[in-house]
Specification:
By secondary structure, the chain is an alpha/beta fold. The chain folds into 3 domains: 57 residues, no CATH class; 166 residues, D-amino Acid Aminotransferase, Chain A, domain 1 (2-Layer Sandwich), CATH 3.30.470.20; 65 residues, ATP-grasp fold, A domain (Dna Ligase, domain 1), CATH 3.30.1490.20. Helix content is 33%, strand content 21%. It is built from 9 helices and 14 strands. Strands 9, 10, 11, 12, 13 and 14 form a 6-stranded mixed β-sheet that branches. The chain has a 4-stranded parallel β-sheet with strand order 2-1-3-4, with helices on one face. A hairpin with an 8-residue loop joins strand 6 and strand 7. The protein is globular. The C terminus is likely disordered.
Length: 295
């Protein structure tokens, strides 16, 4: 059989190309998936459709189990605990109302300041520094009432945090430097620094790529902090992340295309060697920058 790949992603053509919403109960579609060397998934998938596609495929990209199992800050904390990575000490609540009740009864276990977080929301929109007790009741009202909420111990980040974006087996990293404020988000005025603190960038990339191997995460942006000389502190996983530090949308597409090409080569190698493993073949990551791909 001549090896071939199937793509559900319209922007990337392969030997066989299917519309993203092709009927999976069609025997022809099932046959194409079963015999393909690998399947490139569409950009948007529900957990059920992901399961239905991958049940027929021997290899696929990207893997999304980690995304589905760690959507929301509360689940991410549980994942950090499970995999034993350093992260902010956290107390999880099913709702903001439960958090408020516990706080009014017991206060903060760490003193002040500490951090209040909603479960969803990007750009720091539902993340608040709590510097005094009377601030929390007002901030709690700004969180969705039907979602989990967190109290977190304050981490001294030194006015910066590291964003590490993984694309398959390579990663792009840069610091987001705030102006001495609590928030380092670029959308809140944070400055992007690709070259600063290279030793910390290397340490962060190593930690993230090792984490992704265990968590089965292929494409995501991680926020890390370095309060001391120890391991980096995992703060958050962003499955929808900004593009400014990546060279814009075009830079993002270049990184994703490189990851797809690397995955395709490894699938072919496994196929020719007679391997029968399922999922994505992974090797050690090599950090990359936008300039690497544009040169």
């Amino acid at each position: 059989m001549v090896p071939y790949f199937v793509s559900f992603l319209p922007q990337v053509s392969m030997e066989e190309n299917l519309p993203p919403y092709s009927p999976l109960d069609d025997p022809t579609v099932q046959g194409l998936l079963r015999h393909a060397v690998g399947v490139l998934l569409p950009e948007y998938l529900t957990p059920s459709r992901y399961a239905n596609i991958t049940r027929y495929a021997r290899q696929w990209f990207p893997q999304l189990e980690g995304r589905f199992h760690s959507y929301g800050k509360s689940r991410q904390i549980l994942l950090f605990r499970k995999l034993g990575v350093r992260h902010p000490e956290s107390i999880l609540f099913e709702t903001p109302a439960q958090l408020l009740t516990a706080f009014l009864q017991e206060g903060s276990p760490w003193g002040y300041p500490f951090v209040l977080k909603g479960d969803k929301g990007g750009g720091g929109s539902r993340v608040f520094p709590i510097r005094k007790p009377e601030s929390l009741p007002r901030r709690v009202t700004q969180l969705p009432g039907n979602e989990p909420a967190l109290m977190q111990r304050w981490v001294e980040h030194g006015g910066k945090d590291l964003r590490v974006v993984v694309y398959g087996d390579h990663a792009v990293s840069y610091f987001r430097v705030g102006g001495g404020n609590f928030y380092n988000n670029v959308c809140r005025g944070g400055r992007i620094d690709h070259t600063g603190w290279p030793d910390l960038q290397e340490k962060g990339v190593r930690a993230v790529t090792a984490f992704c191997r265990e968590a089965r995460i292929d494409v995501a942006g991680f926020d890390l902090m370095f309060p001391d000389a120890g391991d980096p502190v995992f703060v958050e996983i962003n499955f929808h992340f900004g593009r400014k530090g990546l060279g814009g949308s075009e830079g993002h597409r270049l990184h994703l295309r490189r990851a797809i090409e690397d995955w395709r080569r490894r699938c072919l190698r496994l196929f020719t060697e007679g391997g029968e493993g399922r999922g994505r073949v992974r090797v050690e990551a090599t950090p990359a920058t936008v300039s690497d791909l544009q040169s």
